[in-house]
Amino acid sequence: xxxxxxxxxxxxxxxxxxxxxxxxxxxxxxxxxxxxxxxxxxxxxxxxxxxxxxxxxxxxxxxxxxxxxxxxxxxxxxxxxxxxxxxxxxxxxxxxxxxxxxxxxxxxxxxxxxxxxxxxxxxxxxxxxxxxxxxxxxxxxxxxxxxxxxxx
Length: 152
What we know:
Blueprint: H1 2-12, H2 14-32, H3 52-76, H4 83-105, H5 111-136, H6 143-146
Helix pairs in contact: 1-3, 2-3, 3-4, 4-5
């Protein structure tokens, strides 16, 4: 059982390292691509062209890390949160990296498919974050993490 916990803790780091990898990839590849503008062009432009496979690979790896991290985090949550809400929240949070993965597989060359994945990825957190926050508020150790702090 201790080994399972150690593995889950390591996998949970994917929820941190996935987004970091994605950010580093588009920053480095954006600087390396002649004429690319961070302010005028979407990140998706970096998935097409001669070096597009690098960004696509980074995107797939980043999403895989993020997916593994989300699953591991919810697998480690205490049993105080019932199984159905725990996995419902995990499923809701998984929609965004799955949408990003979809958008990365279908590049701008397949605009409609790419756009569908991007819209799912950007829209899902607007529902997933509040629902997950409300569920985590029930857990004493997660209460401060789940509450929106207001300035006094």
